[in-house]
Amino acid sequence: MTEKLNKTRFSAKNNNDKVEEGDESNIGSLRSAGIKIEIHTKHASRVWKGRKKSEEKESIIGIPRFAEIMRSMEGAIREDDPYADYWFHEVEKKIADVKSHIEETKREVDEFISEKVPPGMSVSDNMSQEPLIIDLRIRSKLAFQLVYCLMDFDKLASKILLGNHIAIIDNGTKEKLTSHAERLMRGAMSLAYKWRYSGVTRDDMVANNAKARKVIETMGECPDEYLTGELRSSLAPELPNNRKKTLKPKVNEVPETTKKEVA
Asked: Could you tell me if 39 and 154 are in contact, meaning their C-beta atoms sit under 8 angstroms apart?
């Protein structure tokens, strides 16, 4: 009886859930009412903002600029650029590595502080009285992934500063841990600069035309598994319909850290 009910419920011929043609035509695009984050440390604020170029110092990429590059890269993926597909995946894996490092460091700092705090002493989390409130106006999946990483880094920096304030973490260790995490995050963002928009497509690469030869000169050879579409990020935008008909992806790669979390 149960099997019969299930077949009826999920049958494509079930007439109880008819949808009239054109019913979806009046549905507009989805928009969130707003996404905000709070930043409590200057270290995380620096990573978000980056730095503009001046006469004395070079510029440092921040998350807003990173989001712009990744948005352009995602657009190129939709235009069938295999290099965009490749570098999107490389950036995703780098962000996953950085996030894993920050999470592991935070666990170690938490354990270290817990061991050093004497019995009978309670220590609450470090929170800014005037946190930086940011309205997120980004339209890139990997930019969101980096924002999650930033939030983890903010918590890590806050915990390290707390440990330093109560004389459990020394000044040198404080600087070493926070600076290293900052460099890792900036390194992940800077990786986006490895890609440049060229307008090249997989058809160009197969034809080995002038456009393909030029992009090979500037960005090197694109790995075969990305040219064939066998390897792609699970977060990458969909390829053009005409390309999806010719490619048969075999692997939808998930970063190792994500696999562990799922397991």
From this structure: yes
* Alpha-carbon dihedral 49, 53, 57, 59, rounded to 10 degrees: 50
By C-alpha distance, which of 214, 74, 185 is closest to 138?
Answer: 74
Q: Answer whether 235's CB lies under 8 Å from 141's CB.
A: yes
The single residue listed with the structure tokens 């694109």 is: 222
Between strands 251-253 and 36-39, the pairing is unpaired
Q: Identify the residue whose tokens are 């459990």.
A: 168
pLDDT, tens digit, 9 for 90 and up, residues 170-200? 999 999 999 999 999 999 999 999 999 999 9
Token pair belonging to 183:
């460099």
Domain boundaries, the chain: 38-46+60-117+127-262
What six digits make up the tokens of 202? 């997989």
Query: CA torsion sign, 170 to 176 to 181 to 183?
Result: positive
Joined tokens for residue 16: 């109880």
| Contact assessment for residue 51 and residue 190, using Cβ atoms and an 8 Å cutoff | no
Q: Residues 197-231: pLDDT tens digits?
A: 999 999 999 999 999 999 999 999 999 999 998 99
